[in-house]
């Protein structure tokens, strides 16, 4: 039996008939073509599938699509500006060389969006803990933390809480 789910994905209303066992990862990648959402561990440990649900970073591989009923979902594809320009967070990742193979990058960026959304200032150790649910096998974490420190500080200067 399929369930009808209504949700907003990257600002667009979506209605889908889904199997109650279907993960949000499967829905976003396979049905909606949002390939920034990566299929990694499928048990909520690597962070490659991280998206925002109502502004909160979640592992979409262990989040059922049914649970997204009435919620707002954001993926990296939803961060682009009106003319396709990159978001400040994406630019910081590029400028700080925080990208290698790119597999973990979308999930890390979505976690960074959640962190920046708090408007709070975080030190490097706090940021390291906040990204501990992400596995990066290429870069190590120094450049990722550099990018996150930079964008957190820039945001704090504007909206500091």
Automatic annotation (TrEMBL):
List, for all copies, the residue spans of the domain called 2Fe-2S ferredoxin-type.
3-79
Pathway(s) it belongs to: Alkaloid degradation; nicotine degradation
CDD domains from the UniProt entry: fer2
Q: Name one GO molecular function term.
A: xanthine dehydrogenase activity
Under which EC number(s) is this enzyme classified?
1.2.7.4, 1.2.99.2
Under PROSITE patterns, the record lists:
2FE2S_FER_1, 2FE2S_FER_2
- Identify the enzyme class: oxidoreductase
**One of the GO biological process terms:** purine nucleobase metabolic process
Q: Keywords in UniProt for this one? A: 2Fe-2S, Iron, Iron-sulfur, Metal-binding, Oxidoreductase
Instruction: From the Swiss-Prot or TrEMBL record, give the protein name.
Output: (2Fe-2S)-binding domain-containing protein
What is the gene name?
cutS
């Amino acid at each position: 039996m399929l369930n009808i789910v209504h949700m907003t994905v990257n600002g667009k209303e979506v209605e889908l008939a889904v199997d109650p066992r279907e993960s949000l990862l499967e829905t976003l990648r396979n049905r909606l073509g949002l390939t920034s959402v990566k299929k990694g561990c499928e048990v909520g440990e690597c962070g490659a599938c991280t998206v925002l649900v109502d502004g909160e970073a979640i592992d979409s591989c262990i989040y059922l699509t049914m649970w997204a009923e009435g919620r707002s979902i954001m993926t990296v594809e939803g961060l682009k500006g009106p003319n396709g320009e990159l978001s400040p967070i994406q630019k910081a990742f590029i400028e700080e060389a925080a990208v290698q193979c790119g597999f973990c990058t979308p999930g890390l960026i979505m976690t960074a969006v959640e962190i920046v959304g708090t408007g709070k200032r975080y030190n490097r150790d706090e940021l390291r803990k906040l990204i501990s649910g992400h596995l990066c096998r290429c870069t190590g974490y120094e450049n990722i933390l550099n990018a996150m420190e930079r964008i957190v500080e820039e945001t704090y200067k504007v909206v500091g809480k």
